[in-house]
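> Could you send the Leucyl/phenylalanyl-tRNA--protein transferase prediction when you get a chance?

Sure thing. Input:
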Amino acid sequence: MVPWLASDDPFPPVERALGEASGAPGLLAASAELQSSRLIDAYQHGIFPWYSDGQPVLWWSPDPRMVLIPDEFKVSDSLRKTLRRVLKDAAWEIRVDHDFAGVMRACAQTPREGQRGTWITADIVEAYSSLHRDGRAHSIESWFEGRRVGGLYGVSFGRMFFGESMFAHRTDASKIALAALVGHLRHHKIEMIDCQQNTSHLASLGGREITRKAFLRHLRYAVFEPPIPWQFDKSALLATLGVNAES
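Output:
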């Protein structure tokens, strides 16, 4: 039985999440509302919301957990060429937190294989925008000739980044944003990006699964470390990946 949480109820221990045989592995709890205070508590305990319009708020803590270790990020030859071009071409910009809500809406409108509709509901946009206003959620955006053509958003606590979603309206635009994020996190010695659930796309970029226990062990100290800055330029970012305009 999945517990129903009243507004003041704490989350149950994540070890009580449904198992593989349940048909909804990782489902931990449900609630009627998505409050920003609840969202903060969830991330600090390795829990995230994922649901569709018409459903209650569903809270998850899967085992295993998909993560991307910044030092393991895979830069293919074709992506490396693209990043070099981005560095040289003034038409390309990497912007941070320029249009957070716009990035969320673009992610919501991007079709996903095997997925009908979107989990990025109006309530999700409002809740994460509240975190953004408090400096706890960020967008990394790829801009070309003054137009936002790709990006991603996620939540940042201390020395931990929780990736949420990405989109691309131009070839490799989301990968450019991800490379910029990875470079920034590597520069600040961030050891892990939470990717939540396994996809072939993330695996192709170096993502891998770890046990929930290992994920929570890292989380317990990482989220309470001092926060990192969120202002950067594309040259400093991409140089940390061994990419520069002349190479």
